[in-house]
């Protein structure tokens, strides 16, 4: 009996030691493969002329290695349930599968950074909520798919060769098996604790977490630290938190506030009760009696980045007929998008929501009373949504009518009205939107103001254009930005096509019978990858920038045209200008008002990116993370540093927007 127990214990000890050794041997190729991808990503996206110190590169390499070791050790630890007991062939298949998975995620992260200028974030899950076939077709057309798959195979093969060599050297199935029991037990303890500490990422301090991704003053270098596995994990965490509508305080607490009252107090708002906070969020200065209501036509332009406008000239004409309209417009040129994707920005604009996707589930079936279309409708407007895309995308055809739009016109409607239109990958050409708008606005009853929200689609990968469109030659010597992307020139041509059409529409309205009763406003949904990665500090301020332009009669643009601002400010500016009063939230500030020398927290000139970044006149930072601050001004002031008060106030503003959505939709 004693011998049987001894044999069982010995066999168990043997199995545990074998499993731990196999786990450690597995970790080696995973870490090597992830590190190789990181250095490849650095080389692939390194901007021409960009300089970084060797100490910064070493810091990125070391911190990246720590995250590589962390995710690999966690994988090894989780596999301890099976590694001690499976056969050699099964173990090799497990290794092959895990190496291929880690490498594949690493290359997804590489190309995701190239497109969105950020490691994998929660926007990635939109692939499954989008027109997946169209997205995959765009990926096939716009990315080096075959080359990437070959690189994945080569990197995975490298990892497997390294694993085979390490196995031959260490012999994990038999190592120390003929040694004394005490030595084997000591080896088990050491190997297990080493695995745990590797998974933690540190020996004495708190475990490696998201804030440890920031290790230099260069955001470009910081973005090289996370591997695809940890970036996807953090993206899933964000996604899961954003979809948790059962706890209205989850966003507040994540940003350092125990209650909405605490956040409101930071902003100088009434805060005795939750009801008082909500009332303050929706309180506006009354408009003068008799303020007339104007038609409001708002354009969300696909991929309207700010940078090409900096180089506009007769020989580099990227604006076409828009260019001569800008001298009588209010052009806010220091302006951020809310999100890096079209649908997230659309939701942020319509609902002042940092939570996305918001309307694709049950929430989309419940009218959100503070949504811009609902506010316009309650103010007596007819409300119209027009897009050159298909409205089935992200369930817009269902959601928009619930959220206050009387009519939704999409590519299929435009095709029915204009049989010569062809429906392509993302819809019909934008020109059909303008043909429809001209007809529809002319037919609008004069006693009924009209609110139109337009979403364009042509300026989108793969950057196709109508066959009869005559491209205008562009003198690329005028382009002062990055030139590393092969899609730069095709993108500039679709950019000009889209904004020339908008300019023609503005001219047509301003010279027609609606000129005194119509406001037109336009912004971009996000920047695009064709214009670079913005690694240079002097260019970093352009990373999130899109234009915001208002055209209308007798505009007084004020003093904020070059102050930091963002999507959250648009309808706080447009509604008073159009004569609309209603139950809309104070998401931002009125950009047509002058800023006093000491502005209150609700009117301070700052921009907010709804993924959790803010920007003031000096730089950009991740909310709550002083180490992430990077000077991003075109001409940084002598004193360029993190401002704790700005951060506190922006966290409070973001937290209250989050809370407003959650408390309204609490399940």
Give me some keywords for this one.
667 residues; alpha/beta; seven-stranded mixed sheet; 20 helices; globular
Describe the structure.
The chain is of the alpha/beta class and 667 residues long. The model has no long low-confidence stretch (mean pLDDT 89). The longest helix has 44 residues, at 2-45. The protein is built from 20 helices and 13 strands. It is globular and about 95 Å long.
Spatial order of the strands forming the largest sheet: 2-8-7-1-6-4-5
What's the tally of helices?
20
Helix proportion: 40-55%
Uncertain ranges:
none
Give the strand content: 5-15%
Distance between the termini: 60 Å
Shape: globular
Mean pLDDT: 89
Radius of gyration: 28 Å
Question: Main β-sheet: number of strands, strand sense, barrel status?
Answer: 7 strands, mixed
Number of strands: 13
Helix/strand class: alpha/beta
Give the gist of this structure.
It is built from 20 helices and 13 strands. It is of the alpha/beta class and 667 residues long.
List the helices and strands and how they pair.
Layout: H1 2-45, H2 54-78, H3 88-116, H4 132-142, H5 145-170, H6 181-200, H7 219-222, H8 228-242, H9 250-254, H10 260-266, H11 274-281, E1 295-301, H12 307-310, E2 330-332, E3 335-336, H13 342-351, H14 372-378, E4 382-387, H15 396-402, E5 407-409, H16 411-417, H17 431-442, E6 450-455, H18 488-510, E7 518-524, E8 548-551, E9 565-566, H19 570-578, E10 607-609, E11 613-615, E12 619-622, E13 630-631, H20 644-665
Parallel strand pairs: 1-6, 1-7, 3-9, 4-5, 4-6
Antiparallel strand pairs: 2-8, 7-8, 10-11, 11-12, 12-13
Helix pairs in contact: 1-2, 1-3, 1-5, 1-6, 2-6, 3-5, 3-8, 10-20
């Amino acid at each position: 009996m004693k011998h049987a127990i001894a044999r069982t214990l010995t066999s168990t000890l043997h199995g545990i030691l074998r499993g731990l050794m196999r786990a450690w041997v597995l970790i080696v190729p995973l870490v090597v493969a992830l590190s190789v991808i990181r250095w490849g990503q650095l080389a692939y996206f390194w901007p021409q002329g960009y300089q970084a110190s060797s100490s910064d590169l070493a810091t990125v390499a070391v911190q990246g290695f720590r995250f590589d070791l962390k995710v690999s050790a966690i994988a090894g630890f989780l596999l301890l349930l099976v590694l001690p007991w499976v056969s050699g062939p099964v173990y090799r298949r497990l290794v092959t599968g895990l190496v291929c998975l880690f490498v594949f995620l690493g290359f997804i992260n590489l190309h995701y950074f190239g497109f969105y200028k950020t490691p994998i974030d929660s926007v990635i899950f939109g692939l499954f909520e989008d027109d997946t076939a169209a997205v995959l077709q765009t990926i096939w057309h716009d990315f080096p798919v075959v080359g990437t798959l070959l690189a994945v195979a080569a990197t995975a093969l490298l990892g497997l060769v390294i694993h085979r060599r390490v196995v031959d050297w260490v012999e994990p199935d038999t190592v120390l098996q003929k040694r004394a029991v005490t030595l084997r037990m000591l080896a088990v303890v050491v190997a297990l604790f080493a695995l745990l500490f590797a998974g933690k990422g540190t020996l004495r301090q708190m475990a490696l977490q998201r804030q440890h991704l920031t290790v230099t003053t260069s955001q470009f270098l910081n973005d090289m630290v996370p591997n695809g596995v940890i970036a996807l994990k953090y993206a899933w965490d964000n996604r899961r938190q954003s979809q948790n509508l059962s706890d209205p305080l989850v966003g507040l607490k994540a940003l350092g506030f125990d209650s909405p009252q605490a956040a409101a107090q930071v902003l100088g708002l009434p805060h005795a009760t939750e009801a008082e906070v909500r009332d303050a969020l929706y309180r506006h200065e009354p408009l003068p009696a008799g303020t007339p209501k104007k038609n409001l036509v708002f354009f969300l332009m696909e991929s309207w980045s700010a940078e090409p406008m900096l180089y506009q000239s007769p020989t580099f004409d990227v604006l076409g007929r828009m260019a001569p309209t800008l001298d009588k417009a209010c052009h806010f040129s220091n302006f951020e998008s809310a999100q890096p994707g079209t649908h997230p920005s659309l939701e942020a604009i319509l609902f002042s929501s940092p939570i996305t996707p918001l309307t694709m589930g049950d929430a989309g079936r419940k009218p959100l009373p503070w949504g811009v279309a609902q506010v316009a409708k309650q103010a007596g407007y007819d409300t119209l949504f027009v897009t050159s895309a298909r409205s089935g995308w992200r369930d817009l055809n269902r959601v928009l009518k619930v959220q206050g739009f009387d009519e939704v016109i999409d590519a299929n409607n435009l095709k029915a009205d204009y049989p010569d239109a062809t429906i392509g990958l993302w819809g019909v050409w934008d020109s059909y939107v303008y043909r429809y708008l001209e007809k529809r606005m002319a037919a609008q009853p004069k006693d009924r103001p009209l609110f139109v929200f337009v979403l364009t689609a042509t300026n989108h990968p793969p950057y196709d254009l109508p066959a009869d469109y005559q491209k205008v030659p562009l003198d690329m010597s005028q382009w002062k930005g990055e030139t590393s992307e092969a899609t730069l020139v095709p993108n500039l041509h679709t950019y000009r096509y889209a904004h020339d059409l908008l300019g023609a529409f503005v001219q047509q309205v301003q010279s027609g019978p609606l000129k005194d009763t119509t406001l037109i406003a336009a912004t971009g949904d996000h920047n695009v990858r064709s214009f670079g990665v913005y690694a240079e500090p002097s260019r970093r301020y352009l990373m999130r920038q899109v234009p915001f332009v208002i055209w209308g009669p007798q505009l007084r643009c004020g003093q904020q045209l070059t102050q930091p601002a963002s999507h959250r400010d648009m309808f706080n500016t447009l509604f008073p200008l159009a004569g609309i009063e209603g139950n809309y939230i104070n998401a931002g500030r009125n950009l047509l008002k002058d800023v006093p020398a000491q502005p209150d927290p609700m009117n301070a000139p700052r921009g907010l990116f709804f993924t959790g970044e803010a920007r003031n006149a000096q730089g950009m930072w991740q909310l709550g993370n002083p180490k992430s601050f990077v000077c991003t001004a075109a001409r940084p002031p002598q004193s360029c540093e993190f401002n704790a008060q700005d951060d506190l106030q922006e966290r409070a503003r973001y937290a209250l927007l989050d809370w407003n959505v959650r408390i309204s939709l609490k399940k």
